[in-house]
Design a protein that fits this description.
The protein is mostly beta strands. The protein has four helices and 46 strands. It has four domains: about 1-80 and about 505-540, no CATH class; about 85-160 and about 430-500, no CATH class; about 170-180 and about 310-420, Tick-borne Encephalitis virus Glycoprotein, domain 1 (Sandwich), CATH 2.60.98; about 185-305, no CATH class. The longest helix has about 35 residues, at about 510-540. The radius of gyration is 49 Å and the shape is rod-shaped.
């Protein structure tokens, strides 16, 4: 009879312990990263009354054993995935999959699923207890040796971090140069043709036989030649008549006054044409000298063909070793030669370009770039920034690559532009982004995005063997096995979700169900004790 009392006591004690576990689970229903627990029971020792033995016949008699109650054999944590809650706080991290965050404790590393982290005043990533989150700072050592437990450290990101200036070394061009554009030479022509006897004058026509000669010229009479050359230089020249001069002598005088143009006569009209096609400032007028005896009635000149350079222009901001910016203008001019363009780079500030500022680009009949050359044997644009920074050697790239098209020449709108350049000014840190593999990237005011650090994740052969220290912290034990420090990859089964937290994995409905069964178990065991007490009471009363 006393055995039943002790069995009932074990039932009360262990069901009370189960209620403690249930109460703790329910209490932590809103604890971030909490993993619910369950208690496991087993039968206590049995008392053998009789062992198995042969029967009187051919069979056997089963053993007779009486149990001595029950006992708790383990309290087991359930490490199933908890639901994720979006918080919008970038430094809140949730683990999706297996693993633990690594935190630096006073006596060694600790592990947690709770990712309520923040950067403290020193830029250190810590949890709510001030424990430092462990990972790897991006450095040459990490790049050389990889991510391992031996080179883990605190994650510290200086809020005043600066992205260093990088001098531009390469400028990449792409787009189209319009093959349909024409480069033309400036041309000026008399409005009215010169005639002789009603017929168009020629270069051999005597000036005094022109119908426009109202009074014959005499030796020493002059014709004034005024205007501007193609580059805008003022022209003020004089032709002096000699007896018997023809139109050709006047043409020679005009050509001499305009060294970059040529005078001719066509259909009786004097024509002045620039020797070089392109943009021009040429103008011309002819008039009689003030002291002349004779006079020729010249009409005005008109601009019959405008000198135009077919061109495409763009600009690019490049950076020197100090991070200062310099604006370069890149201009392509189409030459009269099919498929050929000349190019020129000029600066808009105090910079000095000493070499590589001009060159030639050539295209084939299909519009494909065949050569991009510098003039004078240069191999790059050489520039002195003029501010104490190091000299710059900038390579211009017009060729196509696997990912980008270069320059082309088709009969369509010019779209030539600078696709990219590899320099940058200094930049201040303005934001952080934490990716699914735990990599922390910084965004800077200069547009640079750099990898700064990476969060470590720990795994254990038996995570249920970890020591639970409270505060959502676990510690390695002999039952858990040795920790394995991992660096997550993009295709890892475990991911780190920024701006979210892992909620408790406690199932409240199951806890309430377990609470009911625990209550009934406790009541039943209490009933065993009271019933056994009543039986003992009856036994004691037998002697009365």
């Amino acid at each position: 009879m006393l055995r039943s009392l002790y069995s009932g006591v074990t039932g009360l004690m262990n069901h009370q312990m189960k209620m403690d576990v249930i109460g703790n689970n329910i209490a932590n229903i809103n604890t971030v990263g909490y993993k619910g627990s369950r208690i496991n029971f087993s039968e206590a020792l049995n008392q053998t009354i009789s062992s198995a033995s042969p029967s009187m016949g051919n069979g056997f008699v089963n053993p007779m054993q009486v149990g001595l109650g029950m006992k708790a054999v383990s309290i087991q944590n359930s490490f199933t995935q908890g639901a994720l809650e979006n918080t919008g706080i970038q430094t809140d991290l949730a683990l999706e999959g297996e693993g633990f965050f690594v935190l630096k404790g006073a006596s060694g590393d600790l592990y947690s699923r709770a990712g309520q982290f923040y950067f403290d005043s020193r830029g250190k990533l810590v949890n709510q207890r001030g424990l430092s989150v462990q990972g790897w700072m991006e450095s040459q050592e990490v790049q050389n040796n990889g991510y391992g437990s031996g080179n883990m450290s605190d994650i510290v990101i200086d809020p005043g971090l600066i992205s260093d200036a990088v001098a531009t070394q390469n400028v990449y061009l792409n787009g189209n140069l319009n093959a349909g554009l024409d480069t033309t030479a400036e041309e000026w022509s008399l409005n009215d043709a010169l005639t002789s006897g009603g017929a168009d004058a020629t270069a051999a026509t005597d000036l005094n036989t022109l119908d426009q000669t109202t009074t014959p010229l005499v030796a020493g009479d002059t014709i004034l030649i005024n205007g501007t050359t193609s580059d805008g230089t003022a022209v003020s020249a004089t032709y002096t008549y000699a007896s018997g001069d023809t139109v050709q002598q006047l043409l020679d005088a005009i050509s001499a006054a305009y060294p970059d143009s040529t005078a001719s006569i066509s259909n009786g009209k004097i024509v002045l044409t620039d020797n070089t096609a392109g943009d021009s400032s040429t103008t011309i007028s002819l008039s009689n000298g003030a002291g002349n005896t004779g006079s020729i009635a010249f009409s005005n000149f008109e601009n019959t063909t405008k000198g135009v350079t077919a061109k495409a222009r763009t600009s690019v901001m490049v950076y020197d070793s100090l991070g200062a910016s310099h604006n370069l203008v890149i201009e392509f001019d189409k030459t009269p030669t099919d498929g050929q363009w000349t190019w020129k780079v000029s600066s808009t500030g105090d910079e000095t370009i000493s070499a590589g500022s001009t060159g030639t680009a050539t295209f084939d009949a299909d519009g494909n770039l065949t050569s991009f050359l510098y003039d004078g044997g240069a191999t790059a644009l050489v520039m002195d920034p003029g501010n104490g920074a190091e000299g710059m050697n900038i390579n211009l790239h017009a060729e196509a690559s696997d990912d980008y098209s270069g320059l082309s020449q088709f009969d369509s709108l010019s779209t030539m532009a600078v696709r990219d350049q590899d320099g940058q000014t200094t930049g201040q840190l303005i934001g952080l982004n934490i990716r699914r593999d735990g990599s922390i990237y910084g965004s800077f005011t200069n547009g640079e995005i750099s990898k700064l650090a990476k969060v470590a994740v720990a795994d254990f052969p038996n995570e249920q063997g970890l020591d639970d220290l409270g505060d959502s912290l676990y510690q390695e034990s002999i039952a858990s096995g040795n920790v394995q420090i991992n660096s997550l990859e993009e295709d890892s089964a475990t991911n780190i979700i920024s701006g979210a937290l892992e909620m408790s994995n406690v199932d409240l409905s199951r806890q309430f169900t377990d609470m009911i069964t625990t209550q009934r178990g406790f009541q039943a065991n209490a009933k065993v004790i009271t019933t056994a007490d009543q039986i003992l009471s009856e036994l004691i009363n037998l002697k009365r």
